[in-house]
Design goal:
Pfam families: E1_DerP2_DerF2. The chain is about 10% helix and about 45% strand. With about 150 residues, the protein is mainly β. The protein has a single domain (about 25-150), classed as Immunoglobulin-like. Strands 1, 3, 5, 6, 8 and 9 form a 6-stranded mixed β-sheet that branches. The chain has a 3-stranded antiparallel β-sheet with strand order 2-4-7, with no helix packed on it. Strand 5 (about 70-80) and strand 6 form a beta hairpin. The protein is elongated, with a radius of gyration of 17 Å.
């Protein structure tokens, strides 16, 4: 028996949904926006197991409380309460799923990649992800625990 295209689509959708469960996160100072959901894919359990040499998809749904011409992401690895800057390929939020200018009261899906380089140490840490508006105010800030593994 050949499965129908609809059955295949539903199975694929279920598999994708299992990989992109909303994460438990800590809001670390969202002032000009409110986070509705954070997804890291694949991250089926927490802390997220980040495999070296792999790139992870980040999707943050948030509502803006302000108008802004643009936005910029800053990502850190937090160890012993020290923020270590973590480079990402595209820090410009307007090139990461957000249609700019940002409108007050609108919801946005911010999409980006988190590359985990092979040379990173195998360590437990906190990923802290900020998106700031054109006045350097926090649209969102969230933290999740991760384990970098080989």
């Amino acid at each position: 028996m050949v499965p129908s295209p609809l059955a295949l689509l539903l199975a694929l959708g279920a598999a994708t949904a299992a990989l992109a469960e909303p994460l438990r996160f800590v809001d670390c100072g969202s002032k000009d926006g409110s986070i509705q959901e954070v997804n890291v894919s694949p991250c089926p359990t927490q802390p997220c197991q980040l495999l070296k040499g792999t790139s992870y998809s980040i999707n943050v749904t948030f509502a803006s409380k302000i108008e802004s011409q643009g936005s910029k992401a800053r990502v850190y690895g937090e160890m012993l309460h020290v923020d270590i800057p973590f480079p990402i390929p595209e820090p410009d939020g307007c090139k990461s799923g957000i249609q700019c200018p940002i409108q007050k009261g609108h919801s946005y899906s911010y999409l980006n990649k988190l590359p985990v380089k092979s040379e990173y140490p195998s360590i437990k840490l906190i990923v802290k992800w900020e998106l700031v508006d054109d006045q350097d105010q926090m649209l969102f800030c969230w933290k999740i625990p991760v384990q970098i593994t080989s």
